[in-house]
Design goal:
By secondary structure, the protein is mainly alpha-helical. 70% of the residues lie in helices and 0% in strands. The chain is built from 2 helices and no strands. The longest helix is centred in the middle third of the chain and has 31 residues. It is elongated.
Length: 79
């Protein structure tokens, strides 16, 4: 049976805890990187005005913060 991982608690990880949480963090990070790259490619492939660029940059920032919040809910500290 799978072990429940507590959320919203910063904690010290044992080696076994880290082995359980690391694959989850890795999947979350890979998904976030794919999403970030897709959004960023919109900036690289077209000519946008300053307001559109600012909006896309805010979207990118929001994606980073969303990833950070998700990782921290698992008890990890993003640095």
């Amino acid at each position: 049976m799978a072990q429940i991982i507590p959320i919203n608690q910063r904690r010290m990880f044992s080696v076994e805890d880290a082995r359980q949480v690391l694959p989850i963090v890795k999947r979350m990070t890979e998904r976030s990187v794919r999403r970030y790259r897709m959004t960023r490619s919109r900036l690289e492939g077209a000519s946008y005005g300053p307001e559109d660029c600012r909006r896309i940059e805010q979207e990118l920032y929001a994606q980073i913060m969303e990833w950070r919040d998700s990782v921290e809910r698992l008890g990890c500290e993003c640095k």
